[in-house]
Structures are given as structure tokens and as C-alpha cells.
Amino acid sequence: MKLLMDRIRQDGRVIGHEILKVDSFLNHQLDPQLIQAIGREFAGRFAGLGVTKILTIEASGIAVALMAGLEMGVPVLFAKKRRARTQSEAVYAAPVTSYTRGETVEVYVSQRYISPDDTVLILDDFLAMGEATSGLIALVRQAGARLAGVGIVVEKGFQEGGRRLRAQGVNLQSLVVIEALGADGIRFAEPQVAQA
Amino acid sequence: MKLLMDRIRQDGRVIGHEILKVDSFLNHQLDPQLIQAIGREFAGRFAGLGVTKILTIEASGIAVALMAGLEMGVPVLFAKKRRARTQSEAVYAAPVTSYTRGETVEVYVSQRYISPDDTVLILDDFLAMGEATSGLIALVRQAGARLAGVGIVVEKGFQEGGRRLRAQGVNLQSLVVIEALGADGIRFAEPQVAQA
Fold it and tell me: Which of B28, B63, B75 comes nearest A29 by C-beta?
């Protein structure tokens, strides 16, 4: 997605060889017009698959998921994170380890909002090791719903998540894939074929 | 806002005398069309005030803030919550106590994204004791920015937050105000005058 690549080149900040900060437009400050364009791109890439619901995870997945949901005309469900079991209602839950934060949290959704009749599209802002995405896929499986695919705004191609998910046969669409980060800037992978 | 009142009557769930669950359309599952209508309503209510930035708090404020930002053509900034000081960048920060959760967290934004030149509109999904809103107002003051007003989707009129903020002269606009919750349902306050 050229618009997004240009914006990352312009406003992304590279820290070391692993961190790309996009907090001026994607995950702290949000550029609504750009996020609307991202939502439309996802809607196009996952059209015709019978998606009935979009699933994401708080907090930074909510914006892109909402815009895609608006475009596709389907509700958006965001998984919550918690450290302890406090919710009284029946939930689907899965553990997610964050390598950056060095902690494991549980992600969960109310059982009210996913059913075996659903065809779910998972959307998130970043894919690195794939832990959050795998947690969301576990929720879809627990609910007995169908997984239409996974859409990611920025995939770190130099980490394992994307490879693992594709090896499992997941229909993974990343709008941009980063091959390397460093003092000389950001190297993007060639654009993916639309239906890989 | 009649559309919202009707939706709360239809899908809101009342638990005891204090809790209104709207997680089927506002803060767990999201109805993108409804949230777009809410964003437009806020854009109308705060038009002409020179708003340059919308500030909200993760996670459930993000959706309405994003839609308002799209309508108003301004960026959206969401404050993050944390238990410990880990962020390396310069931030504005304020403590926020959650009475429902019985804990105090720090909310913060990067100093990069609010400046004395900004006129900030604060948006959030719920207003009860007003703790989160007061924390966000503190961030705006720390940055030396101007506060255009506060927009709230659902104000619990039987708790103190709204009264306190209005007594401070804050331009507070709540789309619906709930006077009472109970076994006999939800009692709404009369619609507010648009520019109170």
C-alpha cells in the first residue's frame, strides 16, 4: 500500500534494528484520513469472503478495525486484556505473551459476541512474533467460528510471526512488510500478491 | 441524541442501580454506523471553536474520537494507561483513580503531540465520577493548550462528574444523560440545550 509506505518513510522513526515508531499517525496519535484509507484497503482485500465480524485487540487495533467495519458494514469486536480473572460473564480467553513488555496477559471476548455462525476477519496494527494474532485466532476457534483471514497494517518480516501464520495456512494480508530496520532507514519487502 | 437513546433502550443492560452495559455496540462490540453518527454529532456540537486536536483515553474512547476526528478533519490522540514509569520519552502524565476497579493508574501522552498552539476537544464514552476526564484536562493544562470542551457519549447524571465539571466552567456536552437505573429500566434526563 503505497500511501502507507510513503507515510512510514516520512514520519516513522527507527530505533535500533527492531523498533519502528509510528505513533504520530497509527498507534498513539491517529490520522483519521489515513486510517480510513487503511480500512478501505482491508475491505477490498477481504471482500467476497462472507465476513460477518471483525475481531481486533485493544488498544491500537481498534481504529483500523472500526474503519474497516464501517466500510464492510459489519460489527467490530475488540478483545480486552487483563491480568486477573475478574469478569463475571462467560468469555473465550487465551494467553498472549508480549516479548517487548516481558509479560503474559490474558485476552478475552464475551461469548455473547462470537458464535459458530460467524466468519471472522482479524485485524491488527502490527505483526512481529505473532503472539497477539495467535491469541485472537484461538478465540475464534473456541467460539467455533470460521476464520476468513488476518489483516495487518505493518508486518515485521524479519520476525517469525508472518512465516508461522502462513505455514498454518492462514490467509494473511499485510499492507506493508518491513524486511530490515537500521541506521540507513527502513527496507520494505516487495508488495505482496493480493491473494497470497 | 435520539438515535443513541433508542439504542440504549433497545440493547443496554441494566445491572443493579449503577451499571449500564452497552458492550454490544459501544465499548466491547462496536457498531461502526452508530459510532459514525456519534462522531458527526460531536463534530456539530463543537463546530466553530477552532479545535485542532481530539484527545481521548484508551481503549473505549478511541472509536468515537476517531469518527469525530474524521468528520472534523483533525488528528486524534489517545492517552495511554500504565502502572509504572517505563516510557523513555517526555510525557505529560496525571493519576486517574477508577472506582469500579479500585485502582489508580497514570494516564499519559507524549509531549510531541500536544503544544500550546493546540485547541483540544476531549471525548470519551462514559462520564461517572469524572476521574478520567479530569486526568485528560490535566494533560491539556500541562501542555499549555486551550480546552475547547468535553464531549461524552453517556453521562451518569446520578454521579458527581458532570456537576463538578460544569461547576468548573467546562463546556461539557453529553449526548445522553441517565438520571436513574433500576429494575424498572433506564430514566433519561431531558435533552440538554446544545450550547449549555
Answer: B75
Count of other CB atoms within 10 angstroms of residue A104: 11
- Three-state DSSP at A2 gives helix
User: Does residue A163 belong to any structural domain of this protein?
Assistant: yes
Q: How would residue B193 be classed by pLDDT, with cut points 50, 70 and 90?
A: low
Q: Measured at the alpha carbon of residue B17, what is the angle toward residues B14 and B21, in degrees to the nearest 5? A: 30
Contact of A68 with B63, CB cutoff 8 Å: no
CA distance B147 to chain A (A): 18
Chain A hits for B92, CB-CB cut-off 8 Å, are none
Q: Which tens digits make up the pLDDT trace of B127-171?
A: 999 999 999 999 999 999 999 999 999 999 999 999 999 999 999
Measure CB to CB from residue B29 to each of A25, A63, A75 and give the nearest one: A75
Chain A residues touching residue B24 (CB < 8 angstroms): 112-113
Q: What is the CATH number of the domain that holds A75?
A: 3.40.50.2020
Is B32 within 8 Å of A69 when comparing Cβ atoms? yes
* Lookup: cell for B26: 459501544
Is residue B62 in some structural domain?
yes
